[in-house]
From TrEMBL:
<comment type="pathway">
    <text>Steroid metabolism; cholesterol metabolism.</text>
</comment>
<dbReference type="Pfam" id="PF02055">
    <property type="entry name" value="Glyco_hydro_30"/>
</dbReference>
<feature type="domain" description="Glycosyl hydrolase family 30 beta sandwich">
    <location>
        <begin position="453"/>
        <end position="515"/>
    </location>
</feature>
<dbReference type="GO" id="GO:0022904">
    <property type="term" value="P:respiratory electron transport chain"/>
</dbReference>
<feature type="signal peptide">
    <location>
        <begin position="1"/>
        <end position="22"/>
    </location>
</feature>
<dbReference type="GO" id="GO:0010605">
    <property type="term" value="P:negative regulation of macromolecule metabolic process"/>
</dbReference>
<dbReference type="GO" id="GO:0008203">
    <property type="term" value="P:cholesterol metabolic process"/>
</dbReference>
<comment type="pathway">
    <text>Sphingolipid metabolism.</text>
</comment>
<dbReference type="GO" id="GO:0046527">
    <property type="term" value="F:glucosyltransferase activity"/>
</dbReference>
<keyword id="KW-0443">Lipid metabolism</keyword>
<keyword id="KW-0746">Sphingolipid metabolism</keyword>
<dbReference type="GO" id="GO:0036268">
    <property type="term" value="P:swimming"/>
</dbReference>
<dbReference type="InterPro" id="IPR001139">
    <property type="entry name" value="Glyco_hydro_30"/>
</dbReference>
<dbReference type="InterPro" id="IPR033453">
    <property type="entry name" value="Glyco_hydro_30_TIM-barrel"/>
</dbReference>
<dbReference type="GO" id="GO:0004336">
    <property type="term" value="F:galactosylceramidase activity"/>
</dbReference>
<dbReference type="GO" id="GO:0016241">
    <property type="term" value="P:regulation of macroautophagy"/>
</dbReference>
<dbReference type="GO" id="GO:0030278">
    <property type="term" value="P:regulation of ossification"/>
</dbReference>
Length: 520
């Protein structure tokens, strides 16, 4: 087990400890069986980074989270006129300009809503505040499943009446009207800016599918242009209309969650198979025209919503067709096979081929593999996995990154097919508390500080090091640098910004660090 032995021993003895102050409130740290702590929150107390105001030019802020127990620990440093002589220098190269950031967030699944609503009203508000308020980590993106997925307690769509090609019986479920929609309204009320919602469907109604079931290997009956494909396109429009009746609008849509799931594998939960050629023709002939002729023509449409391993092939098939490409805005990515899909080959090549289409992370979670399954309370390795993947994505043109369930229970559910995984927040409703996992703070180092509209810029490093980093100029002209140290050793470094000077810093072992400074 890595990390601070002294911290681990003290926590195991005490059961519950208080960490150093993290922003405006302190972390009530609890140790379970993993390498680091979780921060326990209830209706009256939760650690919070608070609102962040940058100091004047000549000073900078640093925010540190680490395996040793720091959680967004804030310090202020002074910019030096001359080099500190540190062996490692990270140089900001602002003239190298790349993609603009859309944002970061998580998914309001049925299961997430169930877990949030299992808490008392005060604890619910506390949890939502941690994600969406200016005092919290300021998520601005929320993924919303269209009808059921595996993180539901039952199988359903919005149009389960066989033969209803006119969708006359289309209606939202109680999971939408009684749980997800009210929570989305509460999240929006806490946020200082409009939330960008995007929707993904897992399956079409069974009567539209070749296998006659919501689960397993199956695709739409017929061919693109046929009534089944047109009905499925109108299903999307009806979803947007029904949510609009509840005063919720959507920034984006994906063409369907993991289209390879229902095409190449026999998934035990909801899936709808598409080959890239089918997706191309469905967009060109059905979904694209349906959106274009509706009042939702400006809704961003993302293809793929699956593993980046499928790139650039999938993008080539869909986007080389001008009839389909004119309706598409971006490409949605899942992280699950990133370790076997080099970013430069997949993301970099796709961006070079189709620079006008944005790349966007639409789903990620830990605990999904058979050998590393479910919730691990306090796993720092999972926090590092998140931060490393986000940095790699950002450094390869990705504009945002969406976590999976906003909250799960201690078993990693509910999930009707027992596909239990981990989450950034774990709820223990029996005690009316929730735990903020180390992965919550991984997300925070990006979502809190990389405002929408921030632009990635170049960095150069004076030599080889264990550090992973990404740099941005924010809309107000200030700079942000995120640094990950996955090594066992502390790494001193300095940041050189030629407009202000040298920022002396150091990355403790197994830590995530965000530096912020004004440039003028």
């Amino acid at each position: 087990m890595r990390g601070s032995a002294a911290l681990i021993v003290s926590v195991l003895l005490a059961g519950l400890v208080t960490d150093t102050r993290a922003g405006s409130e302190s972390c009530q740290a609890r140790m379970f069986s993993q390498s680091s702590v979780v921060c326990e929150c209830n209706a009256t107390h939760c650690d919070s980074v608070g609102r962040v105001t940058l100091p004047a030019v000549g000073h900078y802020l640093s925010f540190l989270s680490s395996e040793a127990g720091s959680r967004l620990h804030r310090e202020q440093g002074q910019v030096q006129r001359n080099s500190t002589g540190t062996a490692l220098r990270i140089t900001l190269v602002p003239e190298q300009k790349y993609q603009h950031i859309k944002g970061f967030g998580g998914a309001m699944t049925d299961s997430a809503a169930i877990n949030i609503l299992s808490l008392s009203a005060g604890a619910q508000d506390q949890l939502l505040r941690q994600y969406f308020s200016p005092e919290g980590i300021e998520y601005n993106v929320v993924r919303v499943p269209m009808a059921s997925c595996d993180f539901s307690t039952r199988l359903y769509t919005y149009a389960d009446s066989p033969g209803d090609y006119g969708l006359l019986n289309f209606s939202l479920a109680e999971e939408d009207t009684h749980m997800k929609i009210p929570l989305l309204h509460r999240a929006q009320a806490l946020s200082a800016r409009p939330l960008s919602l995007f929707a993904s469907a897992w399956t079409a109604p069974s009567w539209l599918k070749t296998n006659g079931a919501l689960i397993g290997k199956g695709s739409l009956k017929g061919q693109p242009g046929d009534k089944e494909y047109k009905t499925w396109a109108q299903y999307y429009i009806r979803f947007l209309e029904e949510y609009e009746k509840h005063n919720l609008s959507f920034w984006g849509l994906t063409t369907g969650n993991e289209p390879t799931a229902g095409e190449l594998t026999n998934y035990s939960f909801q899936a709808l198979g598409f080959r890239p050629e089918q997706q191309r023709d469905w967009i060109a002939m059905d979904l694209g025209p349906a959106l274009h002729s509706s009042r939702y023509a400006k809704t961003r449409l993302m293809i793929l919503d699956d593993q980046r391993l499928l790139l650039p092939y999938w993008a080539k098939v869909v986007l080389s067709d001008t009839h389909a490409a004119r309706y598409v805005h971006g490409i949605g990515l899942h992280w699950y096979l990133d370790h076997v899909a080099p970013a430069k080959i997949t993301l970099g090549t796709t961006h070079d081929l189709y620079p006008e289409y944005f790349l966007f992370g639409t789903e990620a979670c830990s605990g999904w593999t058979s050998f590393d399954r479910g919730v691990q309370l306090g796993s720092w390795k999972r926090a590092e996995d998140y931060a490393s993947d986000i940095i790699e994505d950002l450094n390869n043109h990705v504009t945002g990154w969406t976590d999976w369930n906003l909250a799960l229970d201690q078993g990693g559910g509910p999930n009707w097919v027992k596909n239990f995984v981990d989450s950034t927040i774990i709820v223990d409703h029996s005690r009316d508390v929730f735990y903020k996992q180390p992965t919550f703070y991984s997300m925070a180092h990006f979502s809190k500080f990389l405002w929408e509209g921030s632009q990635r810029v170049g960095v150069s490093t004076s030599g080889h090091s264990a550090l992973e980093s990404s740099a941005f100029i924010r809309p107000d002209g200030s700079a942000a640098l995120i640094v990950l140290n996955r090594s066992d050793a502390e790494v001193p470094f300095e940041v050189w910004d030629q407009t202000v000077g040298f920022l002396p810093s150091s990355a403790p072992p197994h830590s995530i660090l965000t530096l912020l400074w004004n440039r003028s």
